[in-house]
Write a structure and sequence with these properties.
homodimer, alpha+beta, 4-stranded antiparallel β-sheet, 13 helices, 6 strands, 46% helix
């Protein structure tokens, strides 16, 4: 099992010591409970610190100053990791370009490039089972569309959008014909010396919906410790995002819908019907807001939820979907995520439901 | 909020597609349920792949070959990250050495080195509240032990062991007097060219329990994709560990206890009492097994649990405790872990309990 992932570890943090603090701070009933049964432990954290003899407290403060220096060094470490990521992005790019060419059908892979042996026995067994069915299906298809082979891998990205819950939650029926024109998704990292960020580029073939060849979403990151809270630094984090303006063809904007509304004239009492444009559910809302930092206008709690979701989706595109798209297309990555998830959370399904994306 | 952490994302993996597979593979009732309400989705992953027209399947195989190449590049990336970690370990070391010297009292920090302003208002309020109490306590202490200032920061590491659940679960009463002699914990990374590993070094001052000045635990890592499962590669993972032999003073080994057992003579029927040494709960079992890969002898399920726990503890020492020890001493890191945990898991307390360490 992989032990690289911190959150699993965070599950084992010391709760007992906090009960003391919670009780002092009046944080509610929790402080009165005793889930760990650890009453007889020495006093809690800050409390303990306050109770230390002055000479010792002095030394603890010295350690804290060292800790701030550590956080500053750590920030430099993460900058170098970002540089490494830029360096490796360039190494992956030729492979991703090939992927795009195979997906769009611009280039046909050679025999050698297609050689593939399924190592997993169960896969092979399954393959046996469905081979017959598939053969029949193939025959049917070839009958139905004779001599017209599909170009590249049809609906490659759309299939991924359908398969990954985080994305399918955003996907609407009217988005699907548009996403059939999605050719590629790329991640671009900010240049050295620039504020740290990454950009998701959605490349489209020319289509009947909008004029843009590329839709972009920029995620801005913060990569240094906060002066007021240096110890909370855990590496770069997404702090803001910025979408782009979609140049929709007339009447093709799926992010708005026209509703009819009856209006009563105050004086005369006559009723007339007016049409009004209102926001519509769509994946393409992902490119809103066009400018970052507009979200403060929204309901506070609501906007925080949406932003957290948005950052998570951006991160997921960058870390998972783009680097291993084919595995989301075939479903292999979904299996990995699932078994991984089970390992981390065990009976955590309720959590998953709570985190679902509602728009 | 930080979006660096994958497991949070994994919560959003596509479950719907798996239901098809689960049903096919006969994985139980789950396949019959429909939690996502997504019946009308296109067919599931491998299944989908099998149903593709041959020409398309060929191209998907080409993408898979590209994906294997990506995994190999990724392995090189993680090797470079390991190198970066080695480089930064050297930059942190002078600060950690200072920490050790302040903790043990070998060096007294200067006035400048101790300057510390508490930025958080609530902390200051709290400080006011307890200042009086503390003053009284201080007075009492000075009365009780007049003219004898404590050396360094007494019980620094022991306090951390007591505060962090993952460690306190292992901690026994008889371990505490021994851990009072723990001077420092260091992490050492494997040299370049060597198989990837890290070593935890527990440095002790001379004590009445064992002769070792340093107890070590090596964690061996695997940093390249598995040939049979290249897509499951997610970066280096701990694959094995190796403790060390503790040279206990006679009768001081807390990892064994002597029990008395009544033995009945088969023929004569007389009863005699024999003494027998049996394993005893102790943190110092952490240095067992002395040699790696002995665990196969154990009960399979049980040993896997213990190993997973052990790897997690090793990782936690490396990633959290050693780099930010003072914050675990004061409790600040516990708060961070907790709020972090709440963000990730929300009502996940039950999970935490399930993951607890039982020996």
């Amino acid at each position: 099992m992989s032990m690289r992932h911190r959150p699993a570890l965070a599950q084992h943090r010391g709760r007992s010591c906090h009960l003391v603090m919670d009780a002092i701070k009046g944080k509610g009933e929790q402080g009165m409970q005793n889930p760990g049964g650890q009453v007889d432990r020495p006093v809690g954290p800050h409390f303990l610190e306050s109770m230390l003899p002055k000479v010792v407290k002095r030394r603890v403060h010295a350690l804290k100053r060292l800790q701030v220096q550590c956080a500053n060094i750590e920030a430099k470490f993460y900058e170098e990791v970002h540089e490494l990521e830029r360096k490796y992005a360039a190494l992956y790019q030729p492979l991703f370009d090939k992927r795009r060419d195979f997906v769009t059908g611009t280039v046909e892979p050679t025999e050698e490039e297609c050689e593939w042996h399924s190592e997993r026995e169960e896969e092979e067994e399954l393959a046996e089972e469905v081979k017959e069915k598939a053969a029949i299906e193939d025959a049917k298809k070839e009958e139905a569309v004779p001599r017209e082979d599909p170009k590249g891998i049809p609906e490659f990205w759309l299939t991924i959008f359908r398969s990954v819950d985080m994305l399918s939650d955003m996907l609407q029926e009217h988005d699907e014909p548009i996403l059939k024109h999605l050719k590629d998704i790329q991640v671009k990292f900010s240049e050295p010396g620039q504020p740290m960020s990454f950009t998701l580029e959605f490349h489209f073939e020319s289509n009947g919906y909008f004029n843009n060849a590329v839709l972009t979403k920029v995620y801005k990151m913060k990569s240094e410790p906060d002066a007021s809270e240096p110890f909370s630094f855990e590496g770069p984090e997404i702090i803001d995002c910025e979408g782009c303006l979609i140049d929709w063809h007339k009447g093709k904007d799926v992010t708005v819908k026209t509703i009819k509304k009856k209006q009563k004239h105050k004086g005369r009492g006559t009723v007339r019907t007016v049409t009004k444009q209102v926001p519509n559910d769509s994946f393409f809302n992902f490119f809103n807001p066009v400018k970052g930092e507009q979200h403060t206008e929204m309901n506070d709690e609501d906007s925080e939820f949406t932003l957290a979701q948005d950052f998570e989706i951006g991160h997921f595109f960058r870390e998972r979907i783009v680097p291993r798209a084919v595995l989301y297309f075939t479903g292999e990555a979904l299996e990995d995520d699932e078994s991984f998830d089970e390992e981390e959370l065990e009976e955590g399904d309720e959590e998953v439901c709570q985190h679902k994306h509602h728009r």
